[in-house]
Design a protein that fits this description.
The chain has helices at 3-14, 19-26, 30-43, 64-75, 84-95, 101-110, 176-189, 209-218, 230-253, 259-277, 296-299, 369-381, 391-397; strands spanning 135-143, 152-159, 165-171, 195-197, 222-224, 304-307, 313-316, 319-323, 333-339, 343-348, 351-360. It is an alpha+beta fold. It folds into 4 domains: 3-48, no CATH class; 64-110, no CATH class; 135-292, Ribonuclease H-like superfamily/Ribonuclease H (Nucleotidyltransferase, domain 5, 2-Layer Sandwich); 301-366, no CATH class. It has a 6-stranded antiparallel sheet with strand order 6-9-10-11-8-7, with helices on one face. Strands 3-2-1-4-5 form a 5-stranded mixed sheet. Strand 2 and strand 3 (165-171) form a beta hairpin.
C-alpha cells in the first residue's frame, strides 16, 4: 500500500485536500480521483490497491476471437447503421455478448470500424456529451415569469446530453444563493456532475472566486470555458425558449403568483418540464458521482476566515459568536460557515462545531438569532453578481 496515496485520500475525505491537488500529486485525472474517493469511502483502503495507475487497455481481457466476432457483427447488415451505444445493447440482448462501452469502442477503433478522434475539427467545436451527468450547463436569465410586469431571475442547471433540467431557483437578482440552490437540488437528486459549462465563463458568477473555488476545488467539477461552441449555445437557447413559454403557463395554472411560493413548487415542475422537453441520452450509464454521506449544505457553504479570542469568541458581520466546545479554542484561526440548512458552524482541526450567537457587536444591530442568520445570508449570498443575460439576450433569443 502506498502510504502517500493513503494519506492523500484520507485528507481528501476529511476535507483537508482538494480533488485538483490530489490529482496533481498522483498524476491522474480529477475524474479518476473522484471515483477512487467514492470507492475509498465505501470500501476503505482496499479501494486504493486497484487504482487506475498502470491499467491495461479496456479490451485487454477480450480474446482475439471475440474481438473478431464483434467486428464482424458490426459490419453485418443487421448492425451496420446502428450507433455504438445501441450496438452494445443489441449485442447483449441478441448475441449474449456483454461488454463495457469503453471496451467496445476500443475494439471497434482498433479494427478501423469507428474512427479515432479527428484532430481536424472546426475551431470552437466541442465533443457532444453523450451521458447524463457528463456535462451540465448553468445559467441565469431575467424574465417576467409571473407576467405581472416585474422580472425575476431564474437560475437553471440542465444536462447537456438530455436537455433535462436538474435545478431551478428564482431570485430577485443573479446571485450565489441561486446558483448554490440549483447545485444543491442536483446533488441531492442525482450526484455531482463531471463538468459544468457556462457562457462567458471568464466572468462566471460575476467574477466572484468563492463559488468557482467550491465548484472546482471542493466538488472537483471542471468548469468549461468554451462558451461559444455552436451546439451548446443552440441547446441553451432551446432550453430557455422552452422555459420562457412553458413555465409562466404552469405557474398561472397553479395560481402561483410570488417568488417564494414558486420556489416551493419548482421541484414539482421539473418532472413535468423534463417529460415534455428532455430526450434520452446516447449512453444509458449515468456519469454523476454519487454524493454518498456528504452533506451538500456543507460542501456548498462559503467559508469565512475568523480568529477567536481567549474565550473562543469571534466577530463576523457585526455580530458576536462563540464556538461550542468543551475546550473553546483560544486565539484559533477557524472557518465560519452559515446557511439555512446548517445554521452557524465552525470548522477547524478537521472537525465541525456548533456556534452560539450572542447578539450584535454594536447597539445599532440588535436582532434575534434567526434574523441574524437571514441577514448574513442576504448580505453574503444574495448580492447581485452583475453578470446577467438580460433584455438584449431575451430579445435576441425570444424575438416575439
Amino acid at each position: 500500500m502506498d502510504k502517500e496515496k493513503l494519506a492523500l485520500f484520507k485528507g481528501l475525505v476529511e476535507g483537508a485536500y482538494a480533488v485538483k491537488y490530489v490529482a496533481a500529486k498522483l498524476g491522474v485525472t480529477e475524474r479518476s480521483v473522484r471515483i477512487t474517493k467514492q470507492n475509498f469511502i465505501e470500501h476503505g483502503e482496499s479501494a486504493l490497491v486497484h487504482g487506475n495507475s498502470g491499467r491495461r487497455p479496456a479490451n485487454y481481457f477480450i480474446n482475439d476471437d471475440l474481438q473478431a466476432r464483434i467486428a464482424d457483427l458490426k459490419k453485418s447488415d443487421a448492425y451496420d447503421n446502428v450507433s455504438v451505444p445501441h450496438f452494445k445493447e443489441l449485442m447483449a440482448e441478441r448475441e449474449g455478448i456483454k461488454i463495457s462501452y469503453s471496451a467496445l469502442l476500443e475494439v471497434l477503433k482498433e479494427r478501423g470500424i469507428v474512427p479515432r478522434t479527428n484532430n481536424k475539427r472546426k475551431a470552437g467545436a466541442s465533443k457532444v456529451k453523450a451521458a447524463f451527468g457528463q456535462m451540465l450547463g448553468i445559467a441565469a436569465v431575467s424574465h417576467d415569469w409571473f407576467r405581472n410586469g416585474t422580472p425575476r431571475v431564474l437560475h437553471c442547471l440542465a444536462d447537456a446530453a438530455t436537455r433535462r433540467a436538474t435545478g431551478l431557483y428564482l431570485c430577485d437578482n443573479e446571485c450565489i444563493k441561486g446558483y448554490t440552490e440549483v447545485l444543491r437540488q442536483t446533488m441531492r437528486n442525482h450526484g455531482i456532475p463531471l463538468e459544468l459549462h457556462a457562457e462567458n465563463a471568464e466572468t462566471l458568477f460575476g467574477g466572484d472566486p468563492r463559488l468557482c473555488d467550491i465548484i472546482e476545488n471542493r466538488l472537483g467539477i471542471d468548469i468549461i470555458a468554451d462558451a461559444d461552441t455552436p451546439h451548446l449555445k443552440k441547446r441553451g437557447e432551446y432550453l430557455w425558449n422552452a422555459l420562457r413559454k412553458h413555465l409562466p403557463r404552469w405557474l398561472k395554472t397553479l395560481n402561483v403568483a410570488d417568488m417564494e411560493q414558486a420556489n416551493r413548487q419548482l421541484h414539482l415542475y421539473m418532472p413535468v418540464f423534463n417529460e415534455r422537453f428532455a430526450k434520452e441520452p446516447l449512453v444509458p450509464e449515468s456519469c454523476f458521482v454519487p454524493l454518498g454521506d456528504h452533506n451538500p449544505d456543507l460542501l456548498l457553504a462559503i467559508r469565512h476566515e475568523a480568529v477567536t479570542d481567549d474565550a473562543g469568541r469571534f466577530f463576523f458581520g457585526g455580530f458576536v459568536f462563540s464556538v461550542d466546545s468543551e475546550q473553546p479554542p483560544a486565539h484559533k484561526k477557524i472557518e465560519f460557515l452559515f446557511g439555512e440548512g446548517i445554521g452557524f458552524l465552525a470548522h477547524y482541526d478537521g472537525e465541525y462545531h456548533k456556534v452560539s450567537f450572542h447578539g450584535a457587536k454594536h447597539k445599532d444591530r440588535i436582532v434575534q438569532h434567526s434574523k441574524a442568520l437571514k441577514i448574513l445570508v442576504q448580505e453574503n449570498y444574495c448580492i447581485d453578481l452583475g453578470n446577467l443575460r438580460g433584455d438584449e439576450y431575451d430579445k435576441e433569443v425570444f424575438p416575439n
